[in-house]
Amino acid sequence: MKPELLWKNFKSLCDIPRPSKHEGRALDFIAQYGRDLGLDVLRDPIGNVIIRKPATPGMENCPGVILQGHADMVPQKRPESSHDFLKDPIEMVVDGDWIKANNTTLGADNGIGVSAAMSILADKDVEHGPLEILVTTDEETGMTGAINLQPGLLHGSVLLNLDSEKEGDIYIGCAGGQDITATFTVEYVETASEDIAYKVMISGLRGGHSGMDINIGVANANKLLVRFLKFAAANFEAMLADIQGGTLRNAIPRDAYAILTIDSEDADEFVEMVAEFNDMLREEYDGVEPDMLLSCEIVKSPEKVFSEMSTDDVINALQGCPDGVVRMSPSIKGLVQTSSNLASVSTKDDKVVVNFLIRSASESEKENLSSTIESVMRLAGATVEIDNGYPGWLPNPQSPILRIVADTYRNLYNQEPSIMAIHAGLECGIMAGIYPKWDMVSFGPTIEHPHSPDERVNVPSVERFYELLKEVLKRVK
Question: Can you give the pLDDT at residue 424?
């Protein structure tokens, strides 16, 4: 597969476990890669890696360029996978023109971009001005590396973010984000002696990236489960004992379950109702969620369950909170402007913790949606924390580097690139606040279904992406 050096680097990254907040070994590997090339390597206090490569002779006075990506990946796997993201390498699988992983996320987001930047450092055929690569830490769960990037460390004036996921698209703007954590303190009561316990599960959903895939109609497992639980509470006086769903703030939940109790005399009717509800949901999501399954099984009765009030508070709050697309962009056709992802729900001891990720290209809409969810949660008795906010990236259609990348793409492939913004969080918006004079664009190869076990990268697009990157570096003068 070509370019050979890029794929070799990507394989090396896949061999190193690097889920968010555990990507230290990958960053060490990247830093050592630069040292082995005899280049200047810097580690900043938060762990970001900066590697500098001198300009090609004769191009010393060209503008300095920074190639930027992030080292961490989203750890998602299918239920049948025994993969340990803290220990096991990613198993890559060739599928025609695509590379995917064996029942896990692949980490092409953003491993391909980082591998391309590393390859540029070693590629002797690339012509460029003063060059730096910046590999950040913990992008997927908090933008930690970008937020803590120190001013003055980087010398370049042009930044090429290599974290986009569709060949031919050039991004000049992105949404900002906001985390919301709501915590319920649950009151427990003893389980009634005549009650029977069921584990109700929704599984087989597609999931996906909570920014890129929020508008394609996939289901959120947490929302569907809560929808069923509200029906069960109203018709069977079901009492919750446990609820779990989703794991990551930036991934649409694929699986969720709850343990609840009902009167044993209603058992047959309850099982029939689960089957009917499953048929209803499958009909609603026909063609979108072909593997969806709502099912139940009898489990050992817990000693205690949520009180009626706590059951109602949790269910009603989750049912009432907005999820998915809230508003489309009024100025850019087809672009989501504001969205919410009910990312995870978990029960531990006497707490139910709920996490949301809000995205918006509008700071005021982001704040308003956060306030809406906060209001619903507080009315239900939860405590709410709103943090980890990061700004969006305002588009600059007059950007000089945009013109260079777009013209280069036209010349290479005789096609018109798409100039657009993205409803996902790129680090560009954060870094623009630290380095306001940077001229920035983002582009990359075609990666489908990031943040899910269906993630795959198109091999021919990677070769074209690398060719475009090399030619752009040659033209920045």
Answer: 86
Looking at residue 119, what is its pLDDT? Answer: 98
Give the active site residues: 72, 139
pLDDT band of 164, cuts 50, 70, 90: very high
Query: From its phi and psi, is residue 283 left (phi > 0), alpha (psi between -120 and 50) or beta?
Result: alpha
Structure tokens at 139: 């992008």
CB neighbour list of residue 433: distance below 8 Å, 6 or more residues apart = 391
361, 364, 369, 370: CA torsion to nearest 10: 100
Neighbours of 231 (CB within 10 A): 14
Peptide bond into 3 cis (omega under 30): yes
**Dihedral of CA 220/224/225/230: which sign?**
positive
- β-strand 195-203 against 418-422: which pairing, if any? unpaired
CB atoms within 10 A of CB 88: 13
Of 250, 254, 106, 97, the C-alpha closest to 177 is 250
3-state secondary structure at position 377: helix
Query: 309-345, pLDDT tens digit by residue?
Result: 999 999 999 999 999 999 999 988 889 999 999 999 9
